[in-house]
Design a protein that fits this description.
The complex is a heterodimer. By secondary structure, chain A is an all-alpha fold. Chain A is built from 15 helices and no strands. In chain A, helix 4 (55-89) crosses helix 14 (282-306) and helix 5 (101-113) packs parallel to helix 7. The longest helix of chain A has 35 residues, at 55-89. Chain B has one domain (2-253): P-loop containing nucleotide triphosphate hydrolases (Rossmann fold), CATH 3.40.50.300. Chain B has nine helices and twelve strands. Chain B has helices at residues 40-48, 70-76, 92-98, 112-124, 140-154, 170-185, 197-203, 221-224, 227-234, and strands at 2-11, 14-24, 29-33, 55-60, 63-64, 77-80, 158-162, 189-193, 206-211, 214-219, 238-242, 249-253. In chain B, helix 6 links the parallel strand 7 (158-162) and strand 8 (189-193). In chain B, helix 3 runs parallel beside helix 5 and helix 4 runs antiparallel to helix 5 (140-154). The longest helix of chain B is centred in the C-terminal third of the chain and has 16 residues, at 170-185. The radius of gyration of chain B is 18 Å and the shape is globular. The chains are: A mainly alpha, B alpha/beta.
Chain lengths: 336, 254
């Protein structure tokens, strides 16, 4: 890792490699592992001879393209959100999961599908989004949020507590409603199988706003790495920085978890890889972590379709399968 | 002049500073001394705005510091905390250029003037040869110089240092104190928390003596530094002699 970050040529080589990995995954995911026996040639045909009657072309344009785009953008969002969390808390263990966003979304989705109280009146997407926000806001305010003397440890402890509470509520809901439990469980594993162009149109505008917000915090995060007192002395308004970062994380993860369920570990792995490949400047790390997240989810989605075709393994299970050994590796290397 | 008026600060319900009135003379080196937990660091934090002030005011040239934006305040006054965090792999030059943050626009990079100030700070602290080295590979003394260089690049009239000598050996302590004198000659006003009373007397023009969150005395060392004060503030029996080298008061504990 040291060699990669110090070698001069890696300045252009590493981003180039990263982009080509992502592009390759994106292209293969457009035609790979299909019941329609799609081939790379069909992609080419769309470009040179578009035919609205051709079933293969329609499958690619209406099903595969939105799915791959959403996979990449969700990966990007989660990679950026993870980096923001780690940068703000200066804690390498921080990830969007910490903010109880996943468990909040899962909880309200479960309550929504079992028809609990007024939750049943909400469209399920809205319920999930509100749940994600609820989890995040709960952790944020219990963790000391806006107070100047709040610290990262408090935030993490609040995250653990709220996660525990919301998960047990979800479990209770699943026990009560046995018949709908399967669909909730499927969503809970993180899945991209229901994605269409409608999902994309929900995802990109909110993501764009949140990503701009995220990038506006990069210099503040660079200084925050020196400790809050030093950052403050250098003219950073820590409270305002914290608000912007948390808002960006909330938006990026809520919209992603709403569409695809919790795709775990991406927000943890991508920032660590980015830091290993590049320096510690958040202006570089934010896009790098985003691209790594995008490549990760894109390839994981491709894998999820290849394990037992034509059945789909939820993509969240694949990222967990990749993420767990990676996590153990980090622990053994003493990086955590 | 930096003046602190009727300042009270409370930490989680406990009052740390009580009705403090202190003025920091311009163009001088002021030492904050007092026993552990007397509120020296808290005073620095309150001045620099990283702690909430319960009552009272901090005025810089008559202007209320708490009313300034973070950036504007950071152009007047900088503070080096007691133990700042050094991110892994950060180079000396990167750290020093962070000092220019208060002068940058939201999306802009370092200007030519910024780069010049960074270079000047590196030269003044003798770090030009180490500029591209990661800070975590430096010795304690070099590391502290890098932090001082960052503060210098920030180019503020007032510089507050919280126990800058604590983790240094004697040679590097003296090196740092002399660097402070040089900064002072270049027109900076310094406020520094020190534990070594003899160094405070030797290198500083003005002493602020605190105990239990209150001001006990403030003046030039030769006017206030005596055995009665040491007894009162530190519960220490000592004789005061004249330092034969610097011609300043010096204490020898009994």
């Amino acid at each position: 890792m040291k060699i990669l970050s110090s070698a001069g040529h890696s300045k252009t080589l590493t981003p180039a490699l990263l982009l080509s990995t992502l592009m390759l995954g994106f292209i293969i995911s457009l035609y790979g592992q299909s019941e329609f026996l799609l081939q790379a040639n069909d992609l080419w045909q769309i470009l040179i001879a578009p035919d609205s009657q051709d079933i293969k072309q329609q499958v690619i344009l209406l099903l595969r393209l939105p799915r791959s785009l959403v996979a990449c953008l969700i990966g990007f969002n989660l990679g950026v959100a993870g980096l923001l969390m780690q940068g703000l808390t200066r804690n390498p263990l921080a990830s969007p999961t910490l903010f109880a966003i996943n468990s909040g979304a899962a909880c309200l989705m479960a309550l929504n599908s079992i028809g609990f109280a007024f939750f049943s009146a909400l469209p399920s997407e809205l319920a999930t989004f509100l749940g994600a926000l609820l989890g995040g806001v709960l952790v944020f305010s219990l963790g000391g949020g806006l107070r100047s003397d709040s610290n990262a440890l408090r935030l993490i402890l609040a995250g653990i507590a709220v996660n525990g509470l919301l998960s047990s509520l979800t479990r209770a809901a699943l026990i009560i409603a046995d018949d709908t439990a399967y669909s909730i469980l499927h969503w809970l594993s993180g899945s991209l199988s229901e994605i269409d162009w409608h999902s994309w149109s929900q995802l990109w505008p909110l993501s764009l706003i949140a990503l701009l917000l995220a990038f506006s915090t990069s210099r503040g995060l660079n200084l925050n790495a020196l400790g809050e007192q030093t950052a403050n002395s250098l003219g950073i308004n820590i409270t305002w920085l914290r608000v912007r970062v948390c808002l960006a994380v909330l938006l990026l993860t809520s919209i992603s978890v709403t569409l695809a369920g919790p795709i775990v570990f991406v927000g943890l792995i991508a920032p660590h890889l980015a830091r290993a490949l590049f320096n510690n400047n958040h202006l570089v790390l934010l896009p790098a972590s985003g691209l790594l997240g995008a490549a990760l989810v894109c390839w994981a989605d491709l894998l999820s379709r290849s394990i037992i075709p034509p059945a789909e393994t939820p993509v969240g299970i694949i990222t967990a399968l990749i993420g767990t050994p990676f996590f153990i590796f980090l622990v053994l290397k003493g990086k955590l | 002049m930096l003046s602190i008026e009727n300042l009270s600060v409370a930490y989680s319900g406990k009052t740390v500073l009580r009705d403090l009135n202190v003025s920091i003379p311009e163009g001088k080196i002021t030492a904050l001394i007092g026993p552990n937990g007397c509120g020296k660091s808290t005073l620095l934090k309150a001045i620099s705005g990283s702690l909430k002030i319960a009552t009272g005011k901090v005025r810089l040239a008559g202007q209320d510091l708490t009313k300034l934006s973070h950036k504007n305040r950071a152009r007047c006054l900088s503070i080096l905390p007691q133990s700042p965090i050094t991110p892994e792999g950060l180079s000396v030059r990167q750290l020093v250029s962070f000092g220019r943050n208060p002068y940058l626009s939201q999306w802009g990079g370092l200007s030519v003037e910024d780069l010049q100030k960074v270079q000047m700070a590196l030269v003044e602290t003798g770090l030009t040869d180490l500029a591209d080295r990661p800070i975590d590979s430096l010795s304690g003394g070099q590391r502290q110089r890098a932090w001082i260089a960052m503060v210098l690049a920030q180019d503020t009239q007032y510089i507050l240092l919280d126990e800058p000598t604590t983790y240094l050996d004697l040679t590097h302590q003296i090196e740092l104190m002399e660097m402070m004198q040089k900064m002072n000659k270049n027109g900076k006003t310094l406020v520094v928390v020190l534990h070594d009373l003899n160094q405070a007397c030797r290198y500083c023009d003005h002493l602020i003596v605190m105990k239990e969150g209150q001001l006990i005395a403030q003046d030039a060392p030769h006017k206030i530094f005596n055995s009665t004060l040491l007894k009162q503030v530190f519960a220490l029996n000592a004789v005061i002699i004249n330092d034969p080298v610097a011609n300043k008061p010096m204490c020898i504990p009994l």
